[in-house]
């Protein structure tokens, strides 16, 4: 498989120079080991649209759940760059499983950073992630409102009660719901001047109803179903900071930073897996009228080179972005996020389609992974923020200056 390099793992209070490379190597070795297991099962999960419980069990057993959690809490203190390398490796095995982990990592990255989190709640979740790991995902999008990236108040409502809150509403695209322990639900309060926050809900709580309506062409095993909340109780302490309705929530801001970098690594990993199979096919395919492998043809080398250079560009973009996020360079990170969305995430489908044109009928055979890579890559374009919004904001920035 084609690997993705990354930077060191750091813990709170340590610099990169203080952390030994052995820890880094061990993390990447675990991810590489999981990649092989996931790859062996991916076709079956895709074919049957079955949830990859076996993948999740192996991932939990690997200890990599604790990657974003701080070392002083018993976690690995992994940076975004390290998490990108892990997700990229998993995505070369099974992108559906990798996407479930993307969401878990992005939430726990904000917990580690603490911005927008009450300390008691953050510490409790961080401890659980290390000692009693359970998957978490943020339930943000809604069937009518769409993605939170477009703004607007959520239709999911939190009603104040003497002992906490009651949540009522419906969320779309709740990836990994069969295996989730927690849901972080974006909702507005029922106050005259609504505030917005994220409410922690056990995934199996009374009143949580899963509508099994995920049936997409790609990422079939993610089970990104809609979830309804009917008067679900939330204790007063299980809520992030509440902000004014027109304010950007700090937890959402942190999640979106990590989400962009991790999704970029995931879709880059999909293309790398497709390229890996295509290279093997082109080296082994010897047409009788040619008498030598397709890989020896200059036109084929040129076509493969297009994908290789695009992946090199991906690597540079992801490395730069992770560095900007780690250094707190907000403006540079915002611009980098837009480029990663447009070039790496949305561009993955074009690259896998290009690989299909090289492989011909063999690439479309369901016994080979390339057609599944392409179907999974198509899903990159539905992740928020959508390409149109990214381009429009870039245009507005230039035209208003």
Automatic annotation (TrEMBL):
CDD domains per the UniProt record, alphabetical: ACAD (cd00567)
A molecular-function term among this protein's GO annotations: oxidoreductase activity, acting on the CH-CH group of donors
Residues annotated as domain Acyl-CoA oxidase/dehydrogenase middle:
139-232
Question: Which part of the chain is the Acyl-CoA dehydrogenase/oxidase N-terminal domain?
Answer: 38-117
Q: Tell me which InterPro entries the record gives.
A: Acyl-CoA_DH_C (IPR013107), Acyl-CoA_Oxase/DH_mid-dom (IPR006091), Acyl-CoA_Oxase/DH_mid-dom_sf (IPR046373), AcylCo_DH-like_C (IPR036250), AcylCoA_DH/ox_N (IPR013786), AcylCoA_DH/ox_N_sf (IPR037069), AcylCoA_DH/oxidase_NM_dom_sf (IPR009100), Mito_Isobutyryl-CoADH (IPR052547)
Coiled coil spans: none
Top-level taxon of origin:
Bacteria
Residue span(s) of domain Acyl-CoA dehydrogenase C-terminal: 269-385
User: Which keywords annotate this record?
Assistant: Flavoprotein, Oxidoreductase
Whether Flavoprotein counts among this entry's keywords is yes
Query: Which Gene3D superfamilies does the record match to this protein?
Result: Acyl-CoA dehydrogenase/oxidase, N-terminal domain, Butyryl-CoA Dehydrogenase, subunit A, domain 2, Butyryl-CoA Dehydrogenase, subunit A, domain 3
Does the keyword field hold Flavoprotein? yes
- PANTHER family the record matches: ISOBUTYRYL-COA DEHYDROGENASE, ISOBUTYRYL-COA DEHYDROGENASE, MITOCHONDRIAL
Protein name, as recorded? Acyl-CoA/acyl-ACP dehydrogenase
The organism encoding this protein is: Gluconacetobacter asukensis
């Amino acid at each position: 498989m084609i690997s993705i390099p990354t930077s060191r793992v750091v813990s709170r209070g340590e610099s990169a120079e203080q952390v030994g490379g052995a820890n880094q190597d061990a993390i990447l070795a675990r991810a590489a080991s999981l990649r092989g297991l996931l790859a062996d099962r991916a076709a079956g999960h895709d074919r049957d649209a079955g949830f990859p419980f076996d993948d999740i069990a192996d991932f939990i057993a690997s200890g990599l759940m604790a990657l974003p959690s701080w070392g002083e809490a018993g976690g690995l203190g992994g940076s975004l760059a390290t998490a990108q390398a892990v997700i990229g490796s998993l995505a070369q095995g099974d992108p559906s499983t990798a996407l479930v982990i993307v969401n878990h990592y992005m939430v726990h990255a904000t917990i580690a950073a603490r911005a927008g989190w009450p300390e008691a709640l953050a510490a409790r979740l961080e401890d659980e992630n290390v000692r009693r790991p359970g998957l978490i995902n943020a339930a943000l999008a809604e069937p009518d409102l769409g993605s939170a990236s477009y703004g607007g108040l959520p239709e999911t409502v939190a009603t104040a009660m003497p002992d906490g809150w009651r949540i009522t509403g419906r969320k779309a695209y709740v990836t990994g719901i069969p295996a989730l322990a927690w849901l972080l639900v974006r909702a507005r309060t029922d106050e005259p001047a609504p505030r917005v926050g994220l409410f922690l809900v056990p995934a199996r709580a009374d009143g949580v109803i899963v509508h099994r309506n995920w049936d997409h062409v790609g990422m079939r095993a993610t089970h990104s179903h809609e979830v309804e909340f009917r008067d679900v109780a939330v204790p007063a302490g299980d809520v992030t900071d509440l902000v004014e309705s027109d304010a950007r929530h700090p937890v959402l801001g942190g999640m979106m930073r990590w989400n962009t970098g991790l999704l970029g690594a995931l879709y880059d990993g999909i293309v790398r897996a497709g390229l890996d199979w295509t290279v093997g096919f082109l080296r082994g395919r010897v047409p009788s009228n040619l008498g030598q492998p397709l890989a020896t043809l200059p036109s084929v080398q040129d076509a493969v080179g297009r994908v290789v250079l695009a992946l090199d560009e991906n690597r540079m973009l992801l490395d730069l972005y992770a560095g900007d996020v780690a250094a707190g360079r907000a403006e540079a990170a915002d611009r980098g996020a837009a480029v990663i969305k447009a070039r790496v995430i949305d561009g993955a489908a074009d690259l896998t389609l290009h690989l299909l044109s090289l492989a011909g009928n063999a690439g479309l055979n369901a016994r080979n992974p390339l057609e599944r890579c392409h179907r999974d890559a198509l899903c990159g374009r539905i992740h928020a923020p959508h390409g149109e919004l990214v381009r429009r904001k870039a245009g507005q920035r230039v035209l208003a200056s």
